[in-house]
Amino acid sequence: MPITLTVPEGLLSSEAEAQTFAELTDVLLKVSQLSGNAFMTPNVVGTINVLPQGRVFSGGKAAAAAFIELKLPEIALATDEAKQAFIEAATTIVERASNGRISREHIWTNIVYAAEGSWGIGGQVYDNTQLVSAIQRAAAL
To answer: What is residue 10's DSSP assignment?
Structure first.
């Protein structure tokens, strides 16, 4: 479940970048009710893209803005409530980490769903049933 956080340089310190990514990971697992799951925890991966000042835009103009993109299999965060919980928490995490350098209104989140059978981990294709089975097996350990 890749998370991509894109911010302009200077928005987050290097310490805040690592802490922010850890918190985004934790909230995704928590909202998904998968905290501590041995299969899912190491499969929440991603990047922080730090772009030069003047390379992040809002309304066609350079802005202090952040973008959180989450790529998921279509079975994850499947309810409106789960999506809202993740988006609200992720926005709060990034807003807090910026120490006032970005307003909540300049933090955008999108969730992109992979089509059934197009999720791959370690070179293996997983369909939704296989993902659920792997998660359940790990929970039983």
So the answer is: T
* β-bridge partners, 62: 57
Helices (H) and strands (E) in the chain, counts: 3, 8
Identify whether the C-beta of residue 112 lies closer than 8 Å to the C-beta of residue 71: yes
CA atoms within 13 A on the CB side of 96: 11
Distance CA 67, CA 106 (A): 8
pLDDT at 140: 80
Q: From CA 107, how far away is CA 11, in angstroms rounded?
A: 12
Q: Which residues pair with 73 in a beta bridge?
A: 114
Residue 26, phi then psi, degrees to nearest 5: -60, -45
d(CA 50, CA 11): 9
Q: What pTM value is reported for the model?
A: 0.91
